[in-house]
Design goal:
By secondary structure, this protein is of the alpha/beta class. It is built from ten helices and twelve strands.
Amino acid sequence: MNKTTQILCGALSGAMLFLTACSASSPAAPGAGQSNAGWPEKITIVQIPNENNPDSGKAHEGFRAGLEAALGIRVEELEGAEYAVGIEAMKAGNLDVLTVTPMSYYQAKRVANAEPLVTTATMGEDPYKTVFITKSDRDDINSIEDLRGTSFAFVDPASSSGYMYPKAHLITKLGLDTDRLEQPDYFFKTVTYSGKHDSSLIGVGMGDYETAAVAYQVIGQLDAAGVIDRDDYKIVGETEVIPNACYVIRPDLPQDLKDAILDYYLAYDDAEYFEMFYQSPDVRFIRAKDSDYAVVDEMVRILGLEE
């Protein structure tokens, strides 16, 4: 098993662990879809879970019911717990539309020949990128070069914004050794994996780590929630903007069905839905292109994940 598979599929223990039904199967809806030769009786999609919002199930159901009516075939809605297992489910033909992160898109292409469907132009007011942070009173840390010798926190080796993008940025900008970066006293004094972006952010505030790499959006979210005061932190470096998550589609579905699904996503304009799941009522789906994620191929090369 190569490094890419180990990182992106590490906890793969069975496809049944991935999928959790979040709406009951509905009866087949009569309509034009069933008259199209070669269309399946049902498709299965994975929606974005939002455990913090009690109304998310209602929003998902509205999306699902609308898609079902537009297609004229059953649409089953599921929530995903692990990208890698969802990709295997798509490969096996048990899943038709799946949401993935940029790194999971790379894996979905390789494993399931998945095709890009839609993404979003934005993810709210703050751009999706990684920032390197320290406490605002650290006058000695003002650039990524100054991270040398500090106790540092990544999020998790499987995180795009909490590990892969910041690690690739450090390696590229500072000429560091990929294999040695996380070793104690090579560049950092120590490296810790906090498990969550907010844990890294709060850990820096409490002095558990001197520096960390976190998704920029998390700073605003925790500040707005009153968990932190963003003025207590200083940003000393940042990565390029990271492509947003996207939906991918199973490649062997009939082309006219894939076109109909795409049309529905592109026309969907429920502002409350986008406010709930994308932090802005002005967000809309746009067509995703493979070229949007070309940067991930370069990151895989930089990090030596294909060795």
